[in-house]
Automatic annotation (TrEMBL):
SUPFAM superfamilies tied to this protein: Alkaline phosphatase-like
GO molecular function: alkaline phosphatase activity
Native organism: Parasteatoda tepidariorum
EC number: 3.1.3.1
Pfam families: Alk_phosphatase
Coiled coil spans: none
InterPro entries: Alkaline_phosphatase, Alkaline_phosphatase_core_sf
Group of enzyme by EC: hydrolase
Protein name, UniProt field: alkaline phosphatase
Keywords for the protein's UniProt record, in alphabetical order: Phosphoprotein
Gene3D superfamilies according to UniProt: Alkaline Phosphatase, subunit A
Source superkingdom: Eukaryota
Amino acid sequence: ARQLVEDLPGRDLKVIFGGGRKQFRPSTHLDPVANKTGSRMDGKDLIEYWLKEKKSRNSRAKFITTATELASLNKVPVDLELGLYNHNHM
């Protein structure tokens, strides 16, 4: 997860869809969709990192977790998308 968000080529991808949301969140973060905590022991919140890094590049980035959120992307201009649809692997 860290390599996908922080390193090349992952950090320059415009669309990332998959599962494994728990790998992106610290163990102190409660996932509101799954009602389970993240699994990162280093305390990093890679989703927040991704959003902030994209904003620093003046990109319109969106993090989504549901099919409803995915469908709504057509209504709002977005440059970059991170969609993690399952707490665990897909």
